[in-house]
Design goal:
The complex is a heterotetramer of chains A (421), B (250), C (290) and D (321). Chain B has 250 residues and is an alpha/beta fold. Chain B contains 10 helices and 10 strands. Chain B is 40% helix and 24% strand. Chain B is globular, with a radius of gyration of 19 Å. By secondary structure, chain C is mainly alpha-helical. Chain C has a single domain, classed as ABC transporter involved in vitamin B12 uptake, BtuC (Orthogonal Bundle). Chain C is 75% helix and 2% strand. Chain C has a two-stranded antiparallel ribbon with strand order 1-2. In chain C, helix 2 crosses helix 9 and helix 10 packs across helix 11. The model of chain C has no long low-confidence stretch (mean pLDDT 84). Chain D has 2 domains: 31 residues, no CATH class; 211 residues, no CATH class. Chain D is built from 12 helices and 4 strands. In chain D, helix 2 crosses helix 10, helix 7 packs antiparallel against helix 8 and helix 9 packs parallel to helix 12. The longest helix of chain D is centred in the first third of the chain and has 27 residues. Chain D is globular, with a radius of gyration of 20 Å. Classes of the chains: A alpha/beta (421), B alpha/beta (250), C mainly alpha (290), D mainly alpha (321). Chains in contact: A-C, A-D, B-D, C-D. At the B-D interface, helix 2, helix 3, helix 4 and helix 5 of B face helix 6, helix 7 and helix 8 of D.
Chain lengths: 421, 250, 290, 321
């Protein structure tokens, strides 16, 4: 009797699972996005010719982001930025004449989900292009699958690690953190910093940034006094802060997620550290609000900054972007992920523009021809062929709880003011 | 076969069992009586390894039991039943008995997975043996029902036969007749005699004096943790201390 | 530096203690374990942000409102979910898993309602730092220590000396016997769950100004509360607080003097060691072994 | 002799039918890699959950840190394969044996803990292994950057496509489920059940309760570690997020969804939860909220899990007949 039961159940289970997969395959649960992307069309059985670029078909664009969990805030802003760009591109005729259909997924920041989503995007949604996930571990897990399927991916992660797998179809529209660390190291020598403490998260991009900082600092003759880390989701860094201050460094370099920035800023100031602090990426606007004056004298080098209100912005295309963002979402971008997402879609669009076709290979060649495209992050130049579009950016300092260009701040003697204190 | 010398057990200030000594002869049916709270079940738990005595020693077939764990004592040949029925409710009746056979079976973890010839044979033999034991108490018809679905009396019998499955030399029965009707008590009487014929010594706690006086060869009386008296059923019936303890005159 | 470590160790220790108090209360009153305490803290912080930050009510008023809301929610949870499970006497793991499901729901619902940004919980005592033993400390930190101690004393007195408190303890020890003496055990268990939710919410209100309010605020603190409860002796009020403070100090100390990399691992190893070596904890609470 | 009669009167038919269906699956889904990938994942989870069922469903010992053994299996196999160049299949087995030993080491002191505190001990163990994976000494596990590895190479036959992995996983599922079936119906299986039902009485019946609890833990650790090894050589990438406590909760959810102490429970549980997960993809950021609500609803309405519902249905059928 037992054997029959086993057999029956195994059959039932397998059939249930296969029916489930096939039902998922027939597009019953087509990824529809919030906002007014094109109406959800049920998937016809035929597989669209990937290579032909008949204007009638759609350009399916996949976007797996960690919409839940610790990075939900950044992911939501990124998705908003992508949707804004998709609308703009569709308004001006779409990619090589094909309207973009955005398919958004929540990869919960887990590589296992990322792999499943990648397979689904390739097989079920038949994506023509993908905007890479925010977390580099998910990008690492997805990279090979999408690359082998010949689907161009514009990654928006900051960590250098996933660009070393020589994936032909992956390019980056954000700034590789190795370049940022070079710029910060130059700033440090400029500010005669002699010793540096490092406080880093364990996640891949923070780890990569702090390691790059260590090499750049040692190259510039700056002694690294200590390296402290924190556990993802932790909120109490008093132990680490106390230890850092005990080694009395001239400056502290912090590589962390957005929601950790204000906490470590407050605790460093609380424990009496008055020196300069360097951040691996933009010190977010709302983190600035939580940190208050503890965020003063923080320096970072980053292609974009977030704004309290539209008037503060003096870069023309950025101003245009945040105005449209405010119109659509009723608030200014809360995380610079919005700019990264926007630039990524634009790079993809420009690539298709250069090659005049929506085919994966053609888009890639088109992208590698980009040399002077004015994105939010600055002028994109992919001609070097290593998939990195942006290499420099300017540095900012937070003074009076406002973003100020480092060069202007130095000219006005802001640094002398602190040094004398 | 079982010698208990001057055994004492204290729970904090309370002395549950106070310097009790007794000896059981091979193949006899012995009774253990006494008013409620006299420490009878505690005494059972003492012998079967649930508690370790503070003083004195328990010798079973020449082996000192102090400090041994329940399953070690069971393997030397002492089984028991419990005042509150401790059956494996969701397992079937026959499986309960097969669990009783556990110490007697040899097949290990890997032979089970490989389902070796010897393991299969041993399993079948165990199943047959279990069915024999069910015949012993007339429960074969309910072999595949869950143990929890049996009537109260049947559960008592199943617990006894589960204890017998490992061919013990001594079996401790904790109020086997509790909750049984008179017909079931008669059946129990027959079964107890059958157990004695198998050469298994019995030590039984029971409140039903009619059953006890009819079946036992020797009786021990406990009161407030101390041994009040011992002797044949007739001696115990006329022993003034016992009567006083029961009628509560002193 | 030692003073800094001590103070911040005390602050985080007190919050661990508050969470541990919640666990001990629930365990004392219903013999169960809720994995949603951490998220009760987060919810308390969000509600505090709503009352105190957005509606600009005075702090004390918003504190009372938050405690009442969470008290109600805790009761609702017990009556709506836990009691239903207990009625169709399911395996204990179902109840544990139900609390985990509740914690998923709270986290994601909070994210939907209050969005994903880190919200600024307005400071209670102005934003200027206070000098304490030569160290600049946020006034909220001292407030947190004081409030936790007050809360522990209140709970201790409540459980030990008030009629209702003793009824709750009786209900936990032996529900049937308690019912026999006329105690409405279902009501008292509900109150205990409400109380522990309120205590966790207090933790949220105290932590909000220091760390800001975001959905994952209570996640790790919730789990650390377990370690502190076990170290002190699971089910014991004093134990919860002492365990919390000890754990807070050990953690901050190790990350300051040894290495911050293995801070979390150390606290979980301490939990394991206590469970295996001294399961009854410092206060010898006979709750753990068979 | 009644066994022979059963074989004759067509008891073999449902088994053959099942075998044919399962073997045909990849052909039916030629271009449908995604479906096969999900089936591959289902097979991996079926083995992990069957292991958990042994220690929890049969032996009654709760474990809320089982992702730790999944991690030991996955990382152990990947690291040994990369640094010691041992073929993948062998490293999987070695890593799983190691996981079994570690499971036994954890179970020995934990066997005296009563329910809730055993769950606490396993949660703590799970967190410690996660921390080790996240910041391993010398970065051997690649920490959060993750760890790449190759697919299984069975004597030259590379199992790198979803179809090949599907068949390999199918064989593993059959092996492990039949092993569990035999173990459960043997002396050891009865000892597990006796301990779950009433550990005190089991002790009285001559069962060394501690030894069997340790055996149950070690076996389930072995199963879950094998599943970890299969996962890492299938996805060819592993990072700490996969082995966080969310994974341990996922294992328990699948087991309880499917129904405990049965052979089919874990299969139904793994399949239904994974398909539910895929089905909820459209919900994007509300996916976890819906998942939490469904989990709560299942616990309240379906305590026996899907298998429990089927069993109740069968019993009603039998009574009606």
């Amino acid at each position: 009797m037992k054997r029959r039961l086993l057999a029956g159940c195994m059959a039932a289970a397998m059939l249930v699972s296969l029916a489930g997969c096939s039902s998922a395959e027939t597009g019953k649960t087509e990824g529809n996005t919030t906002g007014n992307s094109t109406e959800v069309s049920s998937e016809t059985g035929t597989t669209e010719g990937k290579s032909d670029n008949d204007p009638g078909g759609e350009f399916v664009l996949g976007s797996p982001q960690p919409l839940t969990g610790v990075n939900a805030q950044a992911a939501q802003a990124t998705l908003n930025g992508i949707q804004l760009a998709v609308e703009e591109v569709n308004a001006s005729g779409g990619i090589a004449g094909r309207q973009i259909k955005l398919v958004s997924y929540d990869d919960q920041g887990s590589p296992e989900e990322a792999v499943k989503i990648a397979n689904k995007m390739i097989e079920v949604d038949k994506v023509d292009g993908v905007i890479g996930p925010l977390l580099s571990t998910c990008q690492m897990a997805q990279g090979t699958l999408l690359n082998d399927a010949g689907i161009p991916t514009v990654a928006i992660g900051l960590s250098p690690s996933f660009m070393q797998n020589n994936w032909e179809y992956v390019v980056r529209s954000s700034l590789n953190s190795d370049y940022v660390m070079k710029i910060l190291a130059e700033n440090m020598t400029q500010l005669e910093i002699k010793s540096l403490a490092i406080f880093s998260g364990q996640d891949d991009s923070s780890k990569a940034a702090s390691n790059a900082m260590k090499t750049e600092a040692e190259k510039a003759g700056i002694k690294v006094t200590t390296t402290e880390t924190y556990v993802d989701g932790d909120t109490d860094f008093s132990g680490q802060a106390a230890k850092i201050i005990n080694t009395n460094p001239d400056a502290v370099f912090v590589a962390s997620y957005a929601n950790v920035q204000p906490i470590i800023a407050k605790q460093l100031r609380q424990f009496g550290f008055e020196g300069l602090c360097f951040n691996k990426e933009l010190f977010q606007a709302d983190s600035l609000k939580v940190a208050g004056e503890a965020a003063n004298n923080w320096i970072f080098a980053y292609p974009y900054i977030s704004y309290e209100n539209i008037e503060d912005c003096d870069i023309p295309n950025m101003k245009e972007f945040i105005t449209k963002y405010q119109e659509k979402y009723g608030e200014l971008p809360s995380h610079e992920g919005a700019m990264r997402g926007y630039d990524a879609v634009m790079v993809l669009w420009k690539g298709a523009e250069n090659s005049g076709s929506a085919d994966g290979k053609a888009i890639l060649e088109g992208i590698n021809k980009i040399s002077d495209f004015e994105g939010l992050a600055g002028t994109f130049d992919y001609t070097a062929g290593d998939g990195e579009g942006i290499r420099t950016c300017n540095s900012y300092v937070i003074s009076g709880e406002k973003y100020v260009l480092l060069d202007n701040w130095l000219k006005e003697g802001g640094y002398e003011a602190i040094k004398s204190k | 076969m079982l010698k208990v010398n001057d055994v004492t057990l204290r729970f904090g200030g309370l002395t549950a069992v106070n310097h009790v000594s007794l000896e059981l002869k091979e193949g006899t049916i012995n009774g253990l009586i006494g008013p409620n709270g006299a420490g009878k079940t505690t005494f059972f738990n003492l012998i079967s390894g649930v508690y370790t005595p503070n003083e004195g020693e328990v010798i079973f077939n020449g082996i000192k039991l102090n400090g041994k764990k329940c399953y070690e004592i069971n393997r030397i040949g002492m089984s028991r039943t419990y005042q509150i029925i401790n059956l494996f409710k969701k397992m079937s009746v026959v499986e309960n008995v097969m669990v009783g056979l556990h110490p007697k079976l040899k097949s290990g973890f890997f032979s089970a997975i490989a389902r070796t010839g010897s393991q299969k044979k041993e399993e079948e033999a165990a199943r047959e043996k279990a069915y024999e034991w069910l015949d012993f108490v007339g429960l074969r018809s309910k072999a595949l029902d869950p143990a929890g679905s049996l009537s109260y009396g049947e559960q008592r019998l199943l617990e006894i036969v589960r204890g017998l499955a490992s061919n013990p030399k001594l079996i401790l029965l904790d109020e086997p007749a509790a909750g049984m009707n008179s017909k079931e008590k008669e059946e129990l009487d027959v079964i107890l005699r059958k157990i004695q014929k198998l050469g298994v010594t019995i030590l039984m706690i029971e409140h039903d004096m009619k059953l006890m006086m009819g079946i036992t060869d020797y009786i021990f009386v406990l009161n407030y943790g101390k041994k009040l008296a011992e002797g044949t059923p007739v001696e115990i019936q006329n022993n003034p201390d016992v009567i006083a303890a029961y009628l509560g005159e002193d | 530096m030692l003073i800094q470590v001590l103070i911040s160790g005390l602050v985080i220790g007190c919050v661990y203690g508050l969470i541990a108090l919640g666990y001990s209360l629930i365990y004392k009153a219903s013999g169960l374990m809720s994995f949603a305490q951490g998220d009760m803290l987060t919810l308390g912080a969000f509600l505090g942000y709503m009352f105190y930050g957005q509606l600009k009510l005075p702090f004390v008023v918003s504190l009372v409102c938050v405690m009442l809301c969470m008290f109600g929610l805790g009761q609702l949870l017990e009556r709506g979910i836990i009691r239903v499970l207990l009625k169709n006497n399911v395996l204990p793991v179902y109840i544990v898993l139900a609390t985990i499901a509740i914690s998923y729901i709270i986290q994601n619902a909070a994210m939907m309602i209050w969005g994903t940004q880190t919200l600024t919980f307005p400071p209670i005592f102005g934003s200027s730092l206070v000098e304490l033993f030569g160290v600049k400390v946020q006034p909220e930190a001292i407030f947190c220590i004081i409030m936790s101690v007050i809360c522990m004393l209140f709970l201790h007195v409540f459980m030990k000396y008030t009629r209702f408190g003793t009824a709750m303890r009786a209900a936990a020890m032996d529900p049937t016997a308690a019912r026999a003496c006329g105690i409405n055990t279902s009501f008292s268990t509900g109150v205990t769950w409400g109380l522990s939710a309120g205590v966790a919410a207090l933790g949220g209100m105290l932590l909000g100004p220091i760390y800001g309010v975001f959905t994952m605020l209570g996640a790790i603190i919730g789990r650390k509360g377990f370690s502190s409860a076990v170290i002190g002796g699971f089910g014991n009020m004093y134990g919860a607080m002492l365990g919390g403070i000890l754990l807070g100090l050990i953690e901050t100390g190790t990350s300051a003097y040894v290495s911050s990399a293995y801070k979390d691992m150390i606290s979980y190893s301490i939990l394991l060691i206590f469970l295996f070596v001294k399961p009854t904890g410092i206060f010898n609470e006979q709750a753990i072994t068979e | 002799m009644n066994k022979m009669k059963n074989l004759m009167n067509g008891k073999m038919v449902p088994k053959l039918l099942l075998a044919v269906i399962l073997l045909l699956v990849p052909l039916l889904f030629q271009n449908f890699n995604y479906g096969l990938l999900i089936c591959g994942f289902i097979a991996v989870y079926v083995i992990a959950i069957s292991g958990l069922d042994l220690v929890f469903g049969y032996c009654g010992q709760i474990s809320m840190g089982h992702a730790a053994f999944f991690a030991i299996g996955a990382y152990g196999s990947a690291i040994m394969h990369k640094y010691l160049h041992i073929p993948a299949l062998l490293t999987m087995i070695i890593a799983s044996v190691a996981a079994a030993l570690i499971g036994a080491l954890l179970a020995y002191p934990a066997s005296k803990l009563v329910f809730h505190f055993l769950s606490l001990a396993t949660v703590a163990f799970g967190e410690i292994v996660y921390q080790l994976a996240a910041q391993s000494p010398g970065g051997i596990t690649g920490n959060f950057t993750g760890f790449y590895t190759e697919s299984i190479n069975l004597f030259g036959f590379q199992i790198n496509t979803n179809t090949r992995f599907y068949y390999f996983a199918l064989v593993c599922v059959v092996i492990f489920l039949s092993a569990k079936h035999r173990l459960v119906h043997s002396r050891e299986g009865r000892a597990f059940l006796a301990i779950r039902e009433n550990a005190h009485a089991a002790d009285g019946m001559g069962i060394n309760v501690r030894k069997y609890k340790v055996m149950a833990f070690a076996t389930s650790a072995f199963y879950t570690a094998i599943a970890g090894g299969m996962y890492v050589h299938f996805v060819k990438f592993i990072s700490p997020e996969t082995v966080s406590n969310k994974q341990s909760v996922m294992f328990l959810t699948m087991l309880l969804f499917g129904g405990t102490s049965s052979l089919a429970g874990p299969v139904l549980g793994a399949a239904s939860v994974l398909l539910l997960n895929e089905g909820l993809r459209f919900a994007e950021r509300y996916q976890m909220l819906i998942y939490g609500v469904l989990l709560l609803a299942a616990i309240l309405l379906m305590p026996g899990g899907i298998y429990g519902v089927i069993q109740k249905g069968q019993q009603k059928l039998r009574r009606v007949k």
